[in-house]
Amino acid sequence: MNEEIPAAETLDKPQPPADExxxxxxxxxxxxxxxxxxxxxxxTEKDQYENDYKYVLQRKQCNECYQYRDWLLKYSPTVIxxxxxxxxxxxxxxxxxxxxxxEYKFDESKIICDVCPEWRSGGFHPELGILLxxxxxxxxxxxxxxxxxxxxxxxxxxxxxxxxxxxxxHACSEIRASSLSGECRFMQEFARRGLGFxxxxxxxxxxxxxxxxxVMGNPSCKDQKHAxxxxxxxxxxxxxxxxxxxEIYR
Length: 250
What we know:
This is Mitochondrial inner membrane protease ATP23. The protein contains eight helices and five strands; from the N terminus they run H-H-H-E-E-E-E-E-H-H-H-H-H. It is mostly helical.
């Protein structure tokens, strides 16, 4: 066939997209597809995508963590009670007196959310306050247990000036925190251990296990047997000490 090639100016040209958002959306979709399949993506581009994805995810986790924290400080009976008790103990630095002179307000800036490299959901530092691990929190109720646990440490440190390198001090506070926070109540322990959960003395076994694991992370602890020994030595007095609660929350 001897058909003539048409002149370029006579051809129909592709139309531009309606708006820039469609371009960005398409590019994001294309990059996501490339990232998941590995097709057409250079090593540098893949690294950049991973960095962007991590940033977006961490921002989302951070926002949720602070939203949960603020909600719990307003509506969780356990968290509200612990905040009040800590504030009354430390009116000079970690709380501010209300205008009526009778109530004290907990300094919520002492509770921060951040990314944690270790497999943990929270932590307490005697000078900095409470850390909530935004990348380890499953939901609002997991954060409630975590925050309540760390607030018991905060309370203990404020009231008794705990020496956290002293294994007996550390073990006592861990026993109290696991027992009083609600993290060892029946449904929580059943969800964690399933059919391996024992109804009889389940609460005590949970508290002992979690306290031992925490003490094992102390640099002054030699090994698991050492941690178990320390926990056993302080168990009776610390497990029975429910302050500032009147009884154990289960």
